[in-house]
Amino acid sequence: MIEPRRRRGLAAAAVAIAALHAAAAAAGNDLALAWLARMRAAVHNLDYEGTFVVQQGQKLASMRIWHSGTGEVERERLISLDGPAREILRDHERVTCVLPDRASIVIDQRRPNQTLGVLGSADFQRLHENYVVQLAGDERVAGRDAQRIDIEARDEFRYGYSLWLDRDTALPLRVEMLSESKQPVERIQFTNLNTDSPIAPAELTLSSANAAFRQVQTPVPDLIQNGRASWSPSQVPPGFRQTTMARLAGHEDRRGAEQLVYSDGLASISVYIESVRSGEPLSGGSRLGAVSTFGAPLDDEHHVTAMGEVPMLSVRTVATSMVRGE
Fold first, then answer.
1. Measured distance CA(240)–CA(271) in Å, rounded
2. Could you tell me if residue 107 is inside a domain?
3. Half-sphere exposure of 53 (CA within 13 A, CB side)
């Protein structure tokens, strides 16, 4: 029989060990967040060029990238290495896509997304609410030493992530988005990366643009502050909050649409409410890589489409719970 004094000693030791484990976990979480902060700065502020592969399901595509972050304006250029030689040029104002196979140039003046901007708009203060962030050891990717970081989803409404960050620069050498069963639904991985030389201006100029190509400009949405949509979801996945409402101009066969955006601090869901004049809008779900999409009719004239880099459960929950606003 254990004496009371010894029992109290064992209990105190157990509490101390638990406290040490908790402190170690907190310290590891802080270090992981520090790495993520370094990564977010690196993808914007450094000069780099290289080749990477994107895998979405069974589809593979390779791309070449040139990025300049040390000049007055951040710019990057990409060119596809498989199939038609499509090009993308990004700066702080617009994204220009050259599609030689369609003889078209598409100019998008909405806020550009960064190719390697993984967690670019993440709210690090909210990550712990929906994810467990931790260091996961050292590995080697594309001939470079890397720190692995795992971001594990706390439930089935969001994907997890594994990131391999270059130890010298914190650039993401490999990124995997993971399903509920921990299987990759999308992967980006560098096969080579050069961070030693500045990017020449000539590398940031489109090479395949043709004056005869048709130019298409996408409409700029009107952001609405504290506005109410004509329809809104009565249910959203746990941890998601509305961050944006916008009205989009009409285009070709559709009238104007309303867009709602919900975020959990990392993942986001976009909800489009449209008045359909013609065509067959999506009904039901579809998925391409990490992007899940679910569409449903609202009434005889309106349709909703919810989409985002989240599991199908999340977009279906939103799209099937829409109610008309007051």
1. 13
2. yes
3. 10
